[in-house]
Specification:
Radius of gyration of chain A: 21 Å
Largest sheet of chain B: 2 strands, antiparallel
Largest interface: A-B, 42 and 31 residues
CATH class of one domain in chain B: Mainly Alpha
Number of strands of chain B: 2
Oligomer: heterodimer
Helix content of chain B: 55-70%
Distance between the termini of chain A: 26 Å
CATH architecture of one domain in chain B: Orthogonal Bundle
CATH superfamily of one domain in chain B: MetI-like
Number of strands of chain A: 14
Structural class of chain B: mainly alpha
Strand order of the largest sheet of chain A: 6-7-8-3-9-10-12-11
Helix content of chain A: 25-40%
Order of helices and strands of chain B: HHHHHHHEEHHHHHHH
Radius of gyration of chain B: 25 Å
């Protein structure tokens, strides 16, 4: 890869120190996003998707959370080394974020106009009136009818889907280079979900920004992503171009996830499979492969050594000791 | 219902589902609607306006000189046409003194609350938002202040600072320097409860998703405190501040009653009561009128505060 990635995260380790012990939320993950690319991060609840993105944004509540190790290179800066004021300049302007629940992510006592212009005023030298005009065009862009009249409305006067559009307008206010969407459709009903997905894709093409889309909906991923990272228990277990992942999943966990999806093109003879067991407690630092207890392929080595990501084909990495096509342990380790 | 839904869907083919909700009311209209339904609060508001008109409008008809004019030969006259509220122990007109005393009492109440609220918000906000060591230090200090009985603190400070400040002339009127002393000491001794309320509000509000969302757009801590958290906790602050005015008027009455507060000839409702206790039966008009005015003011403010709390709660959508 000759192009320099937009964001390059290396060996990120985030832990939370709580009275019960240490929560190992993210255990040394590395990933990168190229300009204009859509990277999907999938995995079940509590696998570290959101925490890793919040770490990058410097929004982990400290205490109890700490970023133990790693670096996040954006441009030529390491985001973890920046002072709070420098980070404020990056948040919203360079990297913006859309959150999961639009019902709670807007301040109930401020009009949406004020909330959208806030980002503009804090990042640009811009007059209030110009900021308002820009806010109106942003609301137009995200498909809110009569944007001019709705600017002075409060969040409770909007429905869930509309609020998520407002959130997107807020995030895009300063034309960020990277948009982190943290399960932006999870709290919405299905028809609205489709609208929001379509909206983000369309805006991404218009503005040529990179998107990191966190989700546990593999259906959405297939439609939007260029590349996919599959996370499990704070590790990235598989990393692949989206077509490769669906055609040729290499990690038992990815296979399990795909096997548990309903398919329209299959007859209903087959029951949906679930992955047996439940994800491990993050309070215990896993020894060996974190997925081993639930894995049907597990061998002796899985108990003792944590697998590293290895390349199986171009751009396709998997962290597993087993070649699941043959069921044999990979050689040369 | 099914048919109705279909009809709606057919008649508005180009609208999103979201547009079908009822047209939203502006927040101020909503608050006013709710406030109007609160009868006692409306009554309190009306009374308070009348009391303010009485104290501040009354000075158009009665001069301050007249209120402070002593005339010993007519001391302790019963209410009459000439002196509707009677005269006091040195022959001053009680009606005129309640008018000018009311001004001072209300000014003391309002200014003391401004000091109280600023201090309470500042300390509560810093403690609640930043937490950790700052929180511990500020809250231990607050608790230490709470441990000293307020009345005791008031009396000691009034005694210590009283008479040290010269008289002030403002807008052509002379105020006893003790007015300033009383305002400051009431403000300095009453912020602790508000600080605790504000801290509790900040602690819970800062955990909201919208604070995280605001941070994610690059909003600074100061902006988050002032623009995002404070407006969300404004309801309890306003209620506390209105009740604070009532309390400040009462506190002023206490210490002035004890003779440590605002010094004559400047009248306040409190210092008019000073000495009236010797004439409880023989000259009831001495304590009845200022007492009644204090009572009405404090009650009106309390009802008003109650109504405001219900009306301005931003989280409530009830009409």
């Amino acid at each position: 890869m000759t192009k320099q990635p937009l964001l390059d995260v290396k060996n990120l380790v985030t832990e939370f120190i709580i009275p019960e012990g240490i929560v190992y939320a993210v255990n040394g993950i590395s990933f990168n996003v190229n300009p204009g690319e859509t990277l999907a991060v999938v995995g079940e609840s509590g696998c570290g998707k959101s925490v890793s993105m919040l770490s990058v944004m410097g929004l982990i509540p400290t205490p109890p959370g700490i970023i133990v190790d790693g670096e996040a290179i954006y441009g030529n800066k390491n985001l973890f080394k920046l002072a709070e004021e420098e980070m404020e300049q990056i948040r919203g302007k360079e990297i913006a974020m859309v959150f999961q629940d639009p019902m709670t992510s807007l301040n109930p006592v401020l009009t949406i106009g004020k909330q959208i212009t806030e980002a503009l005023i804090c990042h640009f030298d811009i007059t209030k009136n110009d900021a308002r005009d820009r806010a109106i065009s942003l609301l137009d862009m995200v498909g809110i009818p009569e944007a001019r009249n709705r600017l002075d409305d409060y969040p409770h006067q909007f429905s869930g889907g509309m609020r998520q559009r407002v959130m997107i307008a807020m995030a895009l206010a300063c034309d960020p280079h990277l948009l982190i969407a943290d399960e932006p459709t999870t709290a919405l009903d299905v028809t609205i979900q489709a609208q929001i997905v379509e909206l983000v894709l369309q805006l991404k093409r218009q503005k040529d920004m990179a998107v990191i889309w966190i989700t546990h909906d593999l259906g959405v991923v297939a439609g939007i992503a260029d590349r996919v990272n599959v996370m499990y228990a704070g590790y990235i277990v598989e990393e692949a171009l989206v077509d490769d992942l669906y055609e040729d999943p290499r990690h038992p966990y990815t296979c399990g996830l795909l096997g548990s999806l309903p398919r329209v093109d299959h007859r209903r003879e087959r029951k949906l499979c679930s992955i047996p067991g439940s994800p491990p407690s993050l309070l215990v630092k896993p020894v060996g492969c974190p997925f081993r207890p639930r894995c049907q392929y597990s061998k002796e080595i899985c108990q003792f050594e944590t697998p590293k990501l290895r390349e199986t084909s171009r751009g396709h990495h998997v962290a597993c000791w087993i070649d699941i096509q043959s069921g044999e342990q990979i050689s040369g380790s | 219902m099914g048919i109705l839904n279909i009809m709606i869907a057919e008649s508005t083919p180009n609208l999103f589902v979201d547009d079908l909700e009822t047209p939203p009311l502006p927040l101020t209209t909503l608050a006013w609607k709710r406030f109007k339904r609160h009868r006692m609060a409306m009554l309190g508001g009306v009374f308070l306006i009348l009391l303010v008109l009485y104290s501040f409008g009354g000075s158009l008809f009665v001069e301050e000189k007249y209120a402070n004019f002593t005339n010993p030969p007519i001391r302790l006259n019963t209410p009459s046409w000439q002196h509707p509220f009677g005269t006091d122990t040195v022959g001053r007109d009680v009606l005129a003194r309640t008018i000018y005393g009311g001004q001072i009492s209300m000014i003391i109440g309002i200014l003391a609350v401004i000091i109280e609220t600023s201090l309470g918000i500042l300390i509560g906000a810093l403690a609640g938002y930043y937490g950790g060591t700052i929180d511990s230090l500020l809250m231990r200090f607050t608790e230490a202040m709470l441990n000293i009985p307020e009345i005791f603190l008031l009396i000691v400070m009034a005694k210590f600072f009283g008479n040290k400040i010269p008289n002030l002339t403002l807008l052509g009127r002379t105020f006893s320097g003790s007015v300033v002393v009383i305002i400051v000491i009431i403000g300095l001794t009453s912020w602790m409860y508000l600080a605790r309320i504000v801290r509790a509000e900040f602690l819970s509000i800062k955990e909201n998703d919208f604070i995280l969302a605001a941070k994610a757009t690059g909003t600074s801590n100061t902006e988050i405190i002032i623009r995002h958290i404070l407006p969300n906790s404004i309801a309890p602050i306003i209620v506390s501040a209105t009740l604070g005015i009532a309390n400040a008027i009462l506190s002023e009455a206490y210490i002035s009653f004890l003779g440590l507060g605002v010094q004559p000839p400047t009248a306040t409702w409190g210092n008019m009561l000073d000495g009236a206790n010797n004439y409880i039966e023989s000259a009831p008009w001495l304590w009845f009128f200022p007492g009644l005015l204090i009572l009405l003011t404090v009650l009106s403010i309390n009802f008003l505060g109650d109504g405001l709390r219900d009306a301005i709660d931003p989280h409530s959508r009830a009409i």
